[in-house]
Amino acid sequence: MTTAPVVAHVVRGGFVESMHHGLAVVTRPDGTVDLEIGDSSTPVFPRSSSKPIQALAMARLGLDTDGALLSLACSSHSGEDFHIEGARAILDRAGLSESDLQNTPDHPYDEVERTAWLAAGQPKQSIVQNCSGKHASMLLTCVRNGWDTATYREPDHPLQVAITETVAELAGDQPVAFAVDGCGAPIHAIPLAGLARSFGRLAAATDGPEARIASAMRGYPEYLGGTRRDVTALIRAVPGLIAKDGAEAVYAVGLPDGRGVAVKIADGSSRARSVVLAAVLRRAGITDEAALAALEHQPVLGHGRPVGSVVAVGV
């Protein structure tokens, strides 16, 4: 990643103030690389972009949710009321409670919801943290298989072993590193092209658990992100597309024809992530201007007013 090219400029008053390096890739339906910015074989932690792949492993193991609740299993939700109630509904199916969740307690991800939560004097809670849908679904999967729920985050737990196998299968590459994600669950480093390939395969699926995952994401994108999230707007705007954002400036997209797209900004800055993704999607033939404009809208402010923007370069 140290050799990643410049992919975005931060322009203030017509002057390039800063720049971001990064990687991007588009894979063909057969998984081969079609478009590459930088070296797409570079391993990255997909972070929360991995969640649909993790949810696929759970669906294969008997996770019996669909629609909104399955989308929530794939989510980094905003912490809106319907997200919290959805996570509770998954726990209810498992016969478990919020005390069984092991994801890191936090305030809501969404700024509006976070402000209201803090104004009400509410503490950080696991059910509110953006990964609670995934963790609740992990617990339900364990219950359906008769597995221990107290150790579900451990790398050698049957659930996590199955997730690792599914990550490798869809990516077409074995993970090269393992770590603990922000929520406490294991995370796997795979080539950026492998992440794109995985999303292309999910988006093109017409049956089986893969199609269930893609259908849930498309049908209930507000559960995947939130009412004010760009990932939600993107899925709604482009028929057949699936997408998932991730921490440290990762974004993955699957197109219905089986192509995959993945972006990673080297310094982890989220302000460049969606701008570069929009530029790559344009090159991939996505023409919905409203959706792309929403991704590209990253103003640079001066005294509270727009005085520039973050723009993609070399993409």
Write structural notes for this entry.
The protein is α+β, with helices and mostly antiparallel strands and 315 residues long. The chain has a domain at 6-66 and 155-312: Beta-lactamase, CATH 3.40.710.10. 40% of the residues lie in helices and 21% in strands. It has helices spanning 51-60, 67-73, 81-94, 111-119, 132-145, 158-171, 192-204, 208-219, 221-224, 230-237, 270-283, 289-296; strands at residues 6-12, 15-27, 33-37, 43-44, 177-180, 186-191, 242-246, 250-254, 260-265, 299-302, 305-312. Strands 1, 2, 3, 7, 8, 9, 10 and 11 form an eight-stranded antiparallel β-sheet that branches. Helix 1 (51-60) crosses helix 6 (158-171) and helix 1 crosses helix 8 (208-219). The chain starts with 5 loop residues before the first strand and ends with a strand.
In a few lines, what is going on in this structure?
The chain is α+β, with helices and mostly antiparallel strands.
| Largest sheet entry | 8 strands, antiparallel
**Main structural class:** alpha+beta
Distance between the termini: 17 Å
What sequence of helices (H) and strands (E) makes up the elements?
EEEEHHHHHHEEHHHHEEEHHEE
Looking at the structure, the CATH topology of the domain at 6-66 and 155-312 is: Beta-lactamase
SS element count, helices: 12
Question: What descriptors fit this protein?
Answer:
three-stranded antiparallel β-sheet; Asparaginase; single chain; eight-stranded antiparallel β-sheet; 315 residues; alpha+beta; Beta-lactamase; Asparaginase_II; globular
